[in-house]
Amino acid sequence: MKKFPIFNYKISNQGGERLDVYIDGVIVDAETQEIYREWFNDQTSVSFKSFRTEIIDSGVKNISITINSFGGQIGDAMAMHDFIQQLENDGYNIETIGIGMVCSAATYILSASKNSKISKNAYYMIHNVSGYAWGDVNEVEKTAKNLRKFNDNIRDFYVN
After folding, report:
1. How do residues 41-97 score in pLDDT, each as one tens digit?
2. Fewest C-beta atoms under 10 Å: which of 1, 33, 47, 88?
3. Which of the following is catalytic: 47, 50, 64, 104?
């Protein structure tokens, strides 16, 4: 069986039956990914937009997603999680595999598939939401309240 190797979101073999996706870098939004590529020649970050585009454009319905990431932007990770579940509901065969470091937002992606595995050697880390505040005391308190609410939502995601 031929494979579709993707490293840093570039397809090098378009004749395979399985799409291999490797999430090796930071999870970011599309705008940040573009800045990283243009300014720092970074080819390792992934956004929901790049992830979705590569999968849809491949036309392959058998997908293996290997994750070795410290995490990143939770919003895009949530979208990737939901997209993986949507694909499975549409008949795609998807497996997620955690190796090395599966931290923070990357844990959302690992947990998305019905066929999720993690190596015995992998490090799986979740933590409280982090953020920043700027402004007077009212703005700082409002930000803290929103962070607590977001933290509770993420906690409930892991519980479920």
Report:
1. 888 889 999 999 999 999 999 999 999 999 999 999 999 999 999 999 999 999 999
2. 1
3. 104
